From TrEMBL:
Organism: Ensifer adhaerens (Sinorhizobium morelense)
Entry keyword annotation includes Oxidoreductase: no
UniProt keywords, alphabetically: Carbohydrate metabolism, Cellulose degradation, Glycosidase, Hydrolase, Plasmid, Polysaccharide degradation, Signal
Pfam families reported in the protein's UniProt record: Glyco_hydro_8 (PF01270)
Protein name as catalogued: Glucanase
């Protein structure tokens, strides 16, 4: 999203944020993933920070940031350890980073720093953004790509490496990160990521898989489910929020994801067979965003009102509502 922080603030309503934090934010500042054993992770902290900015709530932002800084930013390279559990000792149960989490954290810090005139947030964002540039970008086949983590995904890490996750391209974040860590590589990452997603057309539904090997021709990566799954379903949301994608790509994603009664379907990347039909309002909202973007179809009343369900779809729901209020009010 090209809009500055001032335009975005308040696009998540205070009452919606209150419901979200009552369900998923504990008193210590961690966002709880209630569908994954109540762990916390860098992605969730990043989403929480971003939603706190969109709700214009600096106190909650500071609380979430304090946990993130204290408990996750422990790596030597300036990136966040990705997985934390209250029931394990030490609490960090995987020290590797998750690059989308790092991007979300840095992006939220930029918006918060600009919105609330906090130089310390901008400095922290700059450090993380530089660490992303230094450690997670890969030049491969003439394209600038994003490694999902510093270790485990590169050309020499796996027989089918490099492996990427196309849903880790959070396009709206790259212009903001460029403001605190200027580099032409952010635009290259954005441009090449869009071209890359355009080229990923697996199976009869012509959808991207969650995890993609780029050793030769792009194909679903070994050791991961070969599916358009819970990761990839957020790709159209990220494209829409960044005002990117183009009609052909968005229409293809819409057609491939659409199920009966506005459900969002997850499918086998090779055969297109439906694996799961998702009816949670947060997932269905992604379909409705595409209908809005493509055809100005109004958002149904059934998903206009936010009521938290589980961490992930509830997060997507608020990001979707925020986007429609800011950029597509004609669909409300």
């Amino acid at each position: 999203m090209a809009a500055g922080a001032d335009e975005q603030a308040g696009s998540v309503k205070a009452g919606e944020w209150d419901q979200y934090k009552a369900r998923f934010l504990d008193s210590g500042g961690r966002i709880i993933d209630d569908a994954n054993g109540n762990v916390s992770h860098s992605e969730g902290q990043g989403y929480g920070l971003l939603l706190a900015v969109l709700a214009d709530n600096p106190a909650d932002f500071a609380l979430i940031w304090s946990f993130t800084r204290r408990e996750l930013l422990l790596r030597d390279d300036g990136l966040a350890a990705w997985k934390w559990s209250a029931t394990e000792t030490p609490h960090i149960i995987d020290i590797n980073n998750a690059t989308d989490g790092d991007i979300l954290i840095a992006y939220a810090l930029v918006l918060a720093g600009e919105r609330w005139k906090r130089q310390d947030y901008l400095q922290a964002a700059s450090r993380i953004a530089k660490a992303i540039l230094d450690n997670t970008l890969l030049d491969h086949g003439g394209r600038t790509l994003l490694l999902p983590g510093v270790t485990g995904f590169g050309t020499t890490d796996r027989p089918d490496g490099p492996v990427v996750n196309p849903s880790y391209w959070i396009f709206e974040a790259f212009p903001a990160l460029d403001r605190v860590a200027p580099s032409p590589r952010w635009k290259a990452l954005s441009d090449d990521g869009l071209a890359f997603i355009n080229a990923l057309q697996s199976g009869p539904r012509k959808l991207p898989a969650d995890w993609v090997s780029l050793r030769a021709m792009p194909k679903p990566a070994q050791g991961f489910p070969a599916e358009f799954g819970y990761n990839a379903l957020r790709i159209p949301l990220y494209l829409a929020r960044a005002d990117m994608g183009g009609r052909d790509l968005m229409a293809r994603l819409r057609a491939g994801m659409a199920g009966d009664n506005d459900a969002l379907v997850l499918s086998d990347a090779s055969t297109g067979a439906v694996q799961t039909s998702l009816t949670d309002p947060g997932y269905r909202f992604v379909n409705h965003i595409l209908a809005c973007v493509l055809d100005r179809v109004p958002i149904p009343d059934s998903v206009k009102v936010f009521s938290p369900t589980q961490y992930y779809p509830s997060t997507l729901h608020l990001l979707g509502l925020s986007y429609v209020r800011e950029k597509r009010p004609e669909c409300l």
